[in-house]
Structure formats: C-alpha cells, structure tokens
Amino acid sequence: MDSEIVKNLQRTNHNYFLTRENSEEFILKHGVIRMEAEQVTKKVWDRFVKEGALDESRINKRILESWYMCKKSGVNPFNGRGTKVLADKELELRKRENSLLLEIASPFIENLQKMFRKTNSNLLLIDKDGYVLKVAGNKQSKQKASEINFIEGVQWTEDLVGTNAIGTTLRTGEPITIIGAEHFSIASQNWACSAAPIHDEEGKLMGVLDVSSPLTSCQHEHMLGGVVATAYAIEHQWQKKMKEEEIELLHYALDCKDENKPYILFNRRNKIIYTSPFLRDKISIHSLTISSLQEEGYTLSRKDPIVASTNTYEIGYYAEVSKIQKKKPLNERKERSSFRFEGVQGESQVFKDVLDQIKKAAPTDIPVHIYGETGTGKELAARTLHENSERSDGPFVPINCGAVPEDLLESELFGYGAGAFTGAKRNGYEGKLLQANKGTLFLDEIGEIPLKMQIALLRVLQEKRVTPLASKESCPIDIRLISATNENIHDLIEKGRFRSDLYYRIFVYSLSLPSLQERKEDIPAFISSFCKEHSWNVQWNEEHLEIFQSHDWPGNIRELHNTLERIRIHFKSQVPSPLELSSLIREERSLLLPQKKKEEKEEKTLSFRETVEAERIKTALATAGGNVSKASSLAGIPRSTFYRKIKKYKL
Asked: How many other C-beta atoms are found inside a 10 Å radius of the C-beta of residue 649?
C-alpha cells in the first residue's frame, strides 16, 4: 500500500491505525488488489454494445456480469446521466436518517480528500439504497461531476446508470475499481471510480464510500486501497460508537426511578438492552424481540426517545409494557341488540337494500369500499359500519385524501418522528394509520392517493405495521379499512392512476350508494329531518314537495340541505310560495352551470312545437294569476310536468 495512504490514515483521531506492518495482511484479507484482468478498451465496449460479443477472458468477472445484467434490463449505454434525484426536503430526510453515519464518516472523508487533493477527485458517501448523501471535492471536480448529474441526492445504481463502482458494490457487497470504458454507460466513461462497502456492527450494509476521479488526473492504482482502508476504519469507529451507546443506555436504566413499572429499553436497532426488575422474572432479555413480545400478547407503548448525552440524535427508546386480552373469535362474541343508523332512512327500496348490505358487512372485519356521487353520504355509511361493528369502542378516523395537499398527505397518513422536517411538531406526529389502531380508518377519495404512496399503503395493509417518516421504529397496527370514491376505480386502473394490487386489497366488499335522484321518495323525509334538527317549524304542502321532487339534485343530499339552509335564512319562519320555491331552485342551478353552458342554453332556439307549448303555459299562468295548480289544470298538463316545463322555458 502507498506510504501516503498509511500516513494519512494514521493522522485520524478515531483510535484506528493502519500501520505499514499490518497493511499487507489487511490487503490480502479484504481483497483490495485488482490485477486479474486487463483494462477494458472503448473498442471492446463498443463491440459488446452493438453486437453483444465479448472476450470473457479479458474482463473482470464482476464487470462482465454487470454488463450482461445492464443489457438485459435495458439500461441505455449511450446515456447514464443521473435521472432520479431527491427533492431538497427528501434529501434532508435521508441525511437525518443517516446522521450518525455522516458524523462518523466525515472526518475520514476529509483525510482521504487531502490524500487525493492533486487528482481533482470527488469523495462520496452513499446510503444503502444508492442515494448520494455527501460529495467532498474542489469546485472544479464537483462542476465536472454535475455535468452528468453526479450530485448529492442522486440515486447511483446499476439499474439506473449502468455498471459503476457504487452500484456494483451495492449489489455485490464487495470493493471494486471501475475505469473508463468498464462503465456500461458512456456518461461515466471519462471517470475512474473505486468504491467499498460500509457495514454496521451486525454485518449489514449501511452505505458505500467512493472516490471518483477524471481519467486525465487519476491515480487509480492507489484509489481502491485508500477507499477500502477508510471504509474499514469507519466500520471500526461505528462499532466503537455502538458500544458507547449501549453503555449509555445501561447508565440510563440504572438511573431510572420507575423500577416498579413494567418497561423495556431498546437500542436504535430495536434490540432489547434492559428490562425492568418488575418484568425480569416473566421475560427473558436474551430470547425476546418486539415481534415475539406481541405474539405473547404484550403491547408496547413507546415513550420519549433516549438522546445521546453528547449530541442530539436518538440512541434508543423507553417502552412501557402491558398485557392485553386476546379478542374472542367472531362466533363467540355477543350479538348486538339492535342496528344503529343515525341518518335518514326514508321509504325507498333502493336505500333499504343498502342498509341491509351494511347490516351484513358491519359485524365482520373485512375491508369495505363505498362508491357514491358527491353528497350521497359516504362518510355516514362508513360511520354506520364502524358503530355496528366489534370495533365501535375504538376510534373512527376519517381522512379525505383529495382535500390534503399531496406533499402533506404522506405525513398525515403515516405520521413522522421528532424533527422529521422544518416546521414539524417537536415530538413528532402520530399519523392517521396509528390513530385508527384498534378501530376503523376511513379513506375518502382514495383514488387521489399518489402511486408512490399507494405502494407504501399496500405494504402497511399486508404487513400490519407502519413506520412513521424519519423514524426507524416499525409499529404494529390493527385496523379495519373502509375506503370510498366518487370515481370508477376500474377507469383509474386503466389510466395508470391506481394500482391493481391495492384494488384487490381494498375491494373485498363493495357498497354503491344511490343518488338522491334514485331515491326521490325519500326527499320529504330529508326535509322533515332538516327542519327538526334546526327547530324550523314550517309547514310544507304537497305542491312544495312536488317541486323538490321534480328537481334532479346533482349535488345530492348535500345540495338539498344547502338549498333548505338558504330558504331558512331568507324566509325565516315563513315558507316561499311554490313559484318562489321553483324560481329559487332554478336560479341556484343557473349559478352552478359553467358560463359556457349557460350561454349555449341561452342561444338555443325553440322548435315550433316548443314555442306553441311555451305560449300555452304562459297564457295559463297569466289566467290563473300565477297559481301553478290552476294553471296546470287550465293547460291540461300534470302539475309535476308543468313545473319542469316552467323551468325548461324559463317562465
């Protein structure tokens, strides 16, 4: 190994020293020497891309398998620029999730940067998913890298940019150098890159360290040795830090005053570090995990996180433990004495059929999907399902997915940990999924959930666990899901706006709510209910009710209630005349029509037959002095039809 590498590593103040005496042993053990194949030429690459032909004896086996994989998966060899880049907010979240890795690795990266200062190299720290967390280098080298979008926040994996040191290391878990035309995509072929994996104390991959240099100024014979040695030093420091954290957690336990309470201390990896004396005889610290605790019927209530004494990052958490009674099977539970419905039932058979479906579905725990136009009472149907279920003592948590801005919907659903983003609540936020635990979650307008979030929701429903944003803790949940939409889900699937696998998860039992037009015989009951609720003592006659029932009510129950509210405000304890009522509803509808449609209606001319009919109705109204009942008799037209004709001819 180059003496300058050893010298720089020895300057670190992190209690790890790679000496000249142990460097050869280190190199042999970790396989950092790369001499088994000649460097690939542009000609070899060109022939493989165009013809698929390759002399396999003249190329490193890892590069060989990567090329074939890239070709098979359709990676564009003539591009290779970074395309998947995190937004600033997402990158900040990634950095917070990897804050300790960044803190430990940064001093080592600075030392390695000094060693390569004459080569215009960039040093990069990448997380386990391939996202670049940190780029260290001079202004000139960073500018050159930015030309191919090789910047902080970019995801640099084989499937996105082709064979490259970072992506290949992520896939294989091995250190590697890739030079020039060994890169599968042309954008990276002016670079030489060396990368090495970084593992945690359990041997799990948590990131990659990379040095990338322009071909014109690189010293690639020294790059891989320096990168591997530095990655190993970072691992050593990480392990030391984990031991320090464990000792600090044990000190916390010894200082804890709640010895008579059942509680457990966990480290950042959800591993049990300490159990309180109250639990020690019942629970073995060595054989238990969170999942095994839950299987044994214990529930964990996580309290405030435990923060390192020297910093602000979380090193573990304290959780109180309680035993829960398992639910009896459905067939052993007591039957409810009566079915509860808080809305207006009315007389229509179509809605009686819907209530019958709700009665059948409510006692079960299956997902229910409700379809209905705006204003048909989807949330009321969902509440009725909840209130007549075995979960009625638990929470009913509704959320209108279409009313929450897309960038806030994820945190609203899944919640977030402390300090997740600027403006976040100090102690984090328990999302709707966790709020609904042991109860019912109602997702109204579920078709508005973005595709990326649909994947996360599907995973939660399958695994029955949710991980809040910026949190490493996965929390178990027990919810019943009720969803609703006023759109055709099949159409959304065909348009690529809704995932079919999520559809099959939520569309187990469906309810279709009728529009108000389909249940017009229930309108008098809705009017009576509204008057009773608002202590509005007015008398509606048959002619008034016929006017209400002759209207098509495209806004359904909500539009009917809004109209009644306006009448109550305007006429107070009086009722409008039938003509006033008809005019009021007609005017309201004209306000709701788009201007273009209004103009089209105004410009439409009547046929000869329609002109004659309009004159006959106009004459009858004049003769009857505006009395619609008399006018309809004079014209020989049924009263309900007469009202529609008045509206049609704008009389």
From this structure: 15
User: In angstroms, what CA-CA distances link 172 with 124, 164, 175, 206, 255?
Assistant: 18, 12, 8, 13, 44
Extended beta strands in 296-433, E state: 298-307, 314-323, 368-371, 396-400
Query: How far is Cα 116 from Cα 118, in angstroms, rounded to an integer?
Result: 6
What secondary structure does DSSP assign to 76-97, as a single string? -TT------B--HHHHHHHHHH
Model confidence pLDDT, tens digit, residues 59-88: 778 888 999 899 888 899 999 899 999 999
Give the domains, in start order, of the chain with CATH numbers. Answer: 3-242 (3.30.450.40), 256-323 (no CATH), 349-511 (3.40.50.300), 515-592 (1.10.8.60), 595-651 (1.10.10.60)
Contact 183, 162 (CB under 8 A): yes
What is the per-residue pLDDT for 28? 45
Q: Closest Cα partner for 209 from 240, 183, 175?
A: 175
**Helix (H/G/I), strand (E/B), else coil: 536:** coil
If we measure between CA atoms, which residue out of 296, 276, 290, 279 comes closest to residue 475? Answer: 290
How far does Cα 535 stand from its chain's mean position? 44
- Please answer whether residues 117 and 88 qualify as being in contact, where contact means their C-beta atoms are separated by less than 8 angstroms: no
3-state helix, strand, coil in the chain (%, to 5): 50, 15, 35
Task: Copy the structure tokens of residue 409.
Answer: 């919907």
**Signed CA dihedral, 640, 641, 644, 645: sign only:** negative
Which sign does the torsion angle of CA 423, 427, 433, 436 carry?
A: negative
Name the token pair of 96: 């917070």
- 164 close to 148: Cβ distance less than 8 angstroms: no
This model's pTM is above 0.90: no
**Cβ-based neighbours of 364, under 8 Å, separated by 6 or more:** 330, 389, 509
For residue 427, the 8-state DSSP code is: T
Pairing between β-strand 263-267 and β-strand 368-371 as defined by DSSP bridges: unpaired
**Residues of the chain predicted below pLDDT 70:** 1-39, 55-58, 218-221, 256-261, 278-298, 300, 302-304, 310-313, 323-337, 419-427, 587-609, 612
C-alpha–C-alpha distance, residues 518 and 101, integer Å? 62
Give pLDDT, residue 311: 62
Of 249, 248, 235, 175, the C-alpha closest to 201 is: 235
143-179 pLDDT, tens digit each: 999 999 999 999 999 999 999 999 999 999 999 999 9
Q: Provide the Cα torsion 520, 526, 528, 533; round to 10°.
A: -170
Q: What local confidence, expressed as pLDDT, does residue 39 receive? A: 60
Give me the pLDDT at residue 580, please. 82
Q: Token pair of 425, please? A: 């609540």
pLDDT at 233: 95
